Amino acid sequence: FLIYQTSELTFAVATPKRWVNIFDETAITSWMSKNAEGAAQGFHALFLFGVNEGIVATAAARYSGTGENRTLLLLSKISTDGDENWNDHTGSRVSTNEAGTSISDANAAKRFPLRVLAHVEGHTVKDGTETPKEFGFVTEIESSEGLNQGLQILPLARNFSIAYTVAGESLNGYLAFATTAIVTENDKRFVVPFQAIKANGRIVSTVIHSENHKVALTLHNGASAEGCRDPAIAPWEGGKLLMVTPCDDGYRRVYEFTEDGRTWTEALGTLSRVWGNSLSRTGSGVRGDVVTASIEEKQVMLFTHPMQHRTGVNGVTDLLHLWLTDTKKHIFDIGPISEVDKAAGVSSLLYTNGKLFSLYESGASAARSLVFTSLTEELARIKQVMKIWEEVDKRVSQLCSSSGGNAASSNESCHTNTLTAGLVGYLAGNLSGSQWKDEYLGVNATIAKGEKTSANGVRFKGAAAGAHWPVGKQGPNQLYHFANYNFTLLATVTIHTIPKSHHGVPLMGMKLNGHTSTGLVELLYDNNQSWKVVYKNTATKTQERSWEPDTTQYQLALMLRNGKAALYVDGQPLLTENNGVQRDTMGEISHLYIGGLGSGTEVGENANDRDVTVSNVLLYNRPLSSFELMGPLSKQNTVQFVLTDSAVHSDDKKVMEHKNTKKNAFEKIHTADGSVYDHLSSVLLQLLFGLWIFAVL
């Protein structure tokens, strides 16, 4: 077990080249052979660190021997000007049999940074007994007196004893692994991503961490699902950490856990299973990197991983993409950061002194190289996206003050955090061709036979008209994957004409993946002016004469709570989760639809009866509480919604234009019952469910 420490300090960065090849596997193998080091067995780590006044790029190559005699060669290059000049550093050789001196965590913690380089040897295999073997090293890497004189490795500790159980299950051994570990700010704990081999031969990802002010490390109580490997971790708010790990089932799982190892939870409501490992969401994938960054005085996470892109007729290549997330509700693809004509693999990120850099593996396995790039343009785009998120939240929060003196003065709960908590997507009046654009720059809805109306919405007429908002249908990366577990979809709807058919006209619902496109839950309206509830393509409930044409607006709510569906109209339940269908027994969600099916599959005598207007569609990544959904809709107090910052859409356009160019070039709240929101007043409910009229200046 090897850990190398660096100190992330400030440094000056000159105007960089776009891509700089700083390590070449062929050249390294040749150098090692000439120096009698033996043949390199490939790169096993690549990481960026800030040391003193420069950037250190490291690569680890394993050579000379097998089993307990394997040796790790740490290769480093140092740049003092951003990346214009990289100075070679003689390889530092560390054998797995080297001795070390035990040092208490209390003393070592004084020099611990937020990120350290760790290498885990995989030769420690269970020998038929339950007694753990002693193994491992902890060393630090620091600069000599002069930065250009290279780095020196200092032993801190060795000989850890790690039990052969994780999450209550027996282990057979540990997998060789090179990774970036961290030391937490609060308790100064070592936390190291770790791969274990279970008794059944399957690999799981977990972490080992220090306890009780000792350097000796302990396995965490939790572990990933089987088949998840190559984890990366980063610290987050409230003493929590996040792990991102690609899994054999085709996507990346994200786990939240605490420093002390007491809790371990898959982040199904936000980030987990969003990113696919391939175009078909199959295969195991390779390691990405994740870092925490404070940008514009806000904490965000930045994440890299290779994404497959089609080239030519049947070709596929991997481009390294950079992603931005606030971890609570928003995710944005900043775009590809690797060279278009070369496949990208594992990667490392460094954010320091307000600058963003990446080191990644490029090229085929037989002739790989490690490429450094400065992400100046991408960082500017990150700031633009964050500004748009903030501006849209402000616009939504203005609903409180725009309704007149009553709401704002009488209700202390009327503020941004209440209205925007868990608000992931927002469709208002931004249309472009067949795209109904999400104001938060997330996932756009696709419309068919729809025209923009003066009421800040879309009017749908005729067969196959409507809008669908993709979930699984989005493809390899599914930003709304959370909708398979918990969500609330709200929309304001006006029905203009009474249909002729008694079968009903689809108005809102969710469709499942598959050739038959089964509707899990759907809301229809018929010629008796009744609402019809349908699930599994079978009508189950009808309410007699419950809607009026043309003159009335209705607030529709489609909800999934812990996988069970519910439907509400003006806060009144038509189907509750108590008698609803369980989603996970039928498959995953393909898409949500509003106003109509929005596809060419709609036929029959009711096909041309549709004439509805849909406006102000909101998608939450949580189920709204019963109190939020109850209460009469206020018909009198309509809200004048005034956009005072026209630059919002301007920034939106800049970000999306840049994103399309790149493509062509080749208070967290997750309560199960929403009870935390029960303090909302009826005035706020009127605002939430009332008519929203937007006037763009």
TrEMBL record:
UniProt xrefs under SUPFAM superfamilies: Concanavalin A-like lectins/glucanases, Sialidases
Gene3D superfamilies: 2.120.10.10, 2.60.120.200
Signal peptide: none
Pfam family of the protein (one): TS_C
Gene Ontology molecular function: exo-alpha-sialidase activity
Residue span(s) of domain Sialidase: 48-361
Source taxon at top rank: Eukaryota
Domain annotation Trans-sialidase C-terminal: ranges: 420-626
Protein name from the UniProt record: Trans-sialidase
